Amino acid sequence: MIALKFILTDGSQKVVEATEGHSLMEVAIAQAVPGIIAECGGSMACVTCLVRFDPFMAERLGAPDHMEDEMLDFAAAERTENSRLSCQIKVCSWKHGATITVPATQI
Amino acid sequence: MSDDRQETAVASCPFQSIGREYAAFEHEPMYAFFSRVRPLAPIFYSDEIGYWVVTRRVDALTALRDHERFSAEIATQPVQPWPQQITGYLKQRNFTNEAVQVACDPPRHTRIRQIAARFLNVRQFSLYEEQFRQLVNSYLDRIEGQDEADLVDAIFYEFPAQVVFLLLGEDGFDPRKIKQWGDLRLNMIWGKPSDAELEAGARDLADFWDYTVNLVEERKKKPGNDYPSFLLEKRAGDDSVLTENEIKSLVFGLLLAGHETTTNAAGNITLELLRHPKQWRRIVADPALIPNAVEEGLRFASSVVTWRRTAKEDVIVAGQEIPKGSKILIALGSANRDESHFDEPEEFDVERDNPRDHLSFGNGTHACLGAPLARLELRILLEELTRRFPNMTLVPDQEIEWTKTISFRGPDKLRVRLHG
Ligand code: HEM
Fold first, then answer.
1. Of A45, A75, A107, the CB nearest to B365
2. Considering the domain boundaries, does residue A91 fall inside one?
3. Burial B88-115 (b: 16+ CB within 10 A, else e)
4. What is the pLDDT of residues A6-29, one digit of tens each?
5. B158-169 burial string, b = 16+ CB within 10 Å, else e?
6. A76 to chain B: which residues are within 8 Å by CB?
7. What ipTM was estimated for this complex?
8. Contacts of B113 in chain A (CB under 8 A)
9. Is residue A106 domain-resident?
10. Residue B67 is part of a domain; what is its CATH number?
11. pTM score, two decimals?
C-alpha cells in the first residue's frame, strides 16, 4: 500500500492509500480529496488538477513533458517550481510518503 | 459498415418503443421524458434522427473520454444533410471553413488545441473581467428605468457575442450583424431548417466567413492583443504549426462556440432562479453563492443538452452492441440529472454540494475550452443582476418558447418585472 499525504487548502491534512498504476488525479478523485477538480478527466485539457510536491519528491519526478509544461502556465493557481498536473503522475511504490499540496484555487 | 448490420442491431434493441417516444427537436417535455426513461433504458435508438441515445452519466463519460473508439468528427455536421445547392453555393462563395477543434480527432485536434489553449484559458480570460462588467452594466443602464424587460433581448443575446468580439480585438461590434449572422446558424446544423431558411442561412454563413477572412488579414498587417493576432504569432508562417485557413476556421468557430451556448445558459439559469424565488433570494442575500448557483444552473438546465460522437469500431455502450459507424447522441441534460450521481436530481438547489460534476461542458480531450469564460460571464451577469434588481420577478403566465434544435436549449424570451 502506498500512502500519500495531501495538504488541503484549509491547512489540514488528508492521508490517502493508493494502489499502483492509477494516476494521482484518479486517486484524489476516487478518495474525494477536496480541491482536485479534474474537469476533463485526465486528458490534460483543463488544468484543474494542479498540485505541488515537496521539493524532494519533485526532484525525483523530474521535469514535466513539453505539453504538461505548457499547460502548467495556464493554471488558475500560481505555478511554482514544484507544480505538476496530478493527472500526469502515476502512482508507484517510491512515491510512498509524498507530501502533496492542493492549491487555493483551481478555477 | 454494412446496412444490414445496423438493422440487426436496431432490431435487437430492447428499448425500441422508447426510441419512438423521443422527440429530439422538442425541449419542453425533454427532462420529464428522460427522468422516466433513464432508470429503464441506459441507451435507446431514435428512428427520427438515426442516433443511439445515451441517457446515463457513467456511459456518457465513457463515450466522451474515449476518443480512440469514439470520433468527434460528426459534432458539427448537419443533423439533416444539406442539399447539393447549399454546399455548392458555399463552395462558390469560397467558404473553406474546416474542422479544427470540436469536430476533429487527435492527432490533428491535439496539435491545434495545444495552441488554442494558450490563449483560451482561465488566466487570459480573467484579464477581461472589468471590461465584461462594464459591458454588462452598460446594457443594464438602458433598462434600469423600465418596469419590464425581455432579458434575452436586452442583454443575454448580445453580451456573449460582444465578449467573443472583444477576444477577437473588436470593440463595440455592430449588434445588428450579430443578430443577422446568429439567427439561422444553429438551426442549419442542429435543427430542421426549411429550404428558405437554409438559403438565407448559407448566405449569412458565407458573409460571416468573409468577415473572418478580412479580420485575419487585417491582423496580419496590424497585430494586436487579441486571439487572431496570437494565433498568427504562434504560426510564424509555418504551416506545420497552423495553416492560415486553420486560423480563419478557429476565429470563425469561436463565435459559434461562444455565443448562443452562453446566451442560452444565461436565459436558463435566470429562468430557474426566478421560477424558484427562494433560490433567487438566497443569492441576493449572499452573492458568494453565485459561482455555485451558476454550476447548479448549468447542471439543472444545460444550454447544450446533447452532444454527438460516432463509433470508430464495433463497441459496447451501456451494455448495447453498436456497430462501427453508428451515430451516438450523448444526452448531457439527462446525465446531469442522473439519480445515481446527484441526490434529488430534479431539485434546483444553489447550495448543492456537487453541481460542478455536470457534463454541460462535455468531458475528455474536447472539454469546452471556453468553460472558464462562460463561467466568468455568467457570474458577472448574476452579480450585476442581483445587485441592481434584487426584487426582480418573472412576468407571470408567460409561455416559454425553446430553441428548436437537438442540442441547444434556451428560452427565446425571458420577460421579467425588474423591480418586482
Ligand atoms: C455555457 C456555455 C457553454 C457551453 C454549455 C459549452 C459547451 C461545450 C461543449 C458541450 C463542448 C464539446 C465538448 C465535448 O465534445 O466533449 C464545447 C466545446 C468547445 N467550446 Fe464550449 N460551451 C460554452 C461556452 C463556450 C465559450 C464562451 C467558448 C469560447 C469563447 C467556448 C469554446 C469552445 C471550444 C473552442 C470548444 C472545442 C474544444 C475542443 O474540441 O477541443 N465554449 N463547449
1. A45
2. yes
3. ebbeeeebebebbbbbbbeeebbebbbb
4. 999 999 999 999 999 899 999 999
5. bbbbbbbbbbbb
6. 122-123, 372
7. 0.76
8. 45
9. no
10. 1.10.630.10
11. 0.92
